[in-house]
Amino acid sequence: MDKNNLTKKYSNGEITVVWQSGKCMHSGNCVRNLPAVFQPQDQPWIKMDNASTAEITAAVAKCPSGALSIMKSKD
């Protein structure tokens, strides 16, 4: 597996945040917009339980590279 192009998924039961490492330009927008959820020093680095679905969706929408995206979680 190419560690420069990983895809990781993080879910809160309502939505799933998809992170694609190959697209990430490390702008830091996610961390600045929602530091309670996006904590790159930690594993896992996206803590879905630390904010509402609406807050997470809004922060992901500000990702300039498209490395972060949202999928509806399946029931």
- Structural class call reads alpha+beta
Helix-strand pattern, N to C?
A: EEHHE
In the CATH hierarchy, the third-tier topology is known as: Alpha-Beta Plaits
Q: Tell me what portion of residues adopts beta-strand conformation.
A: 15-25%
Just name the CATH architecture: 2-Layer Sandwich
Number of helices in the DSSP assignment = 2
Q: State the shape.
A: globular
Class, according to the CATH hierarchy? Alpha Beta
Number of separate structural domains? 1
Oligomer: single chain
**Low-confidence regions:** none
Count of individual beta strands = 3
Distance between the termini: 29 Å
Could you characterize what this model shows?
It is a single chain. It contains 2 helices and 3 strands; from the N terminus they run ββααβ. The chain is α+β, with helices and mostly antiparallel strands and 75 residues long. The chain has one domain: Alpha-Beta Plaits (2-Layer Sandwich). The chain has a 3-stranded antiparallel beta sheet with strand order 1-2-3, covered by helices on one side. It is globular.
Secondary-structure map with pairings?
Layout: E1 7-11, E2 15-20, H1 29-33, H2 53-61, E3 68-72
Antiparallel strand pairs: 1-2, 2-3
Brief description of this entry?
The mean pLDDT is 93. With 75 residues, the chain is of the alpha+beta class.
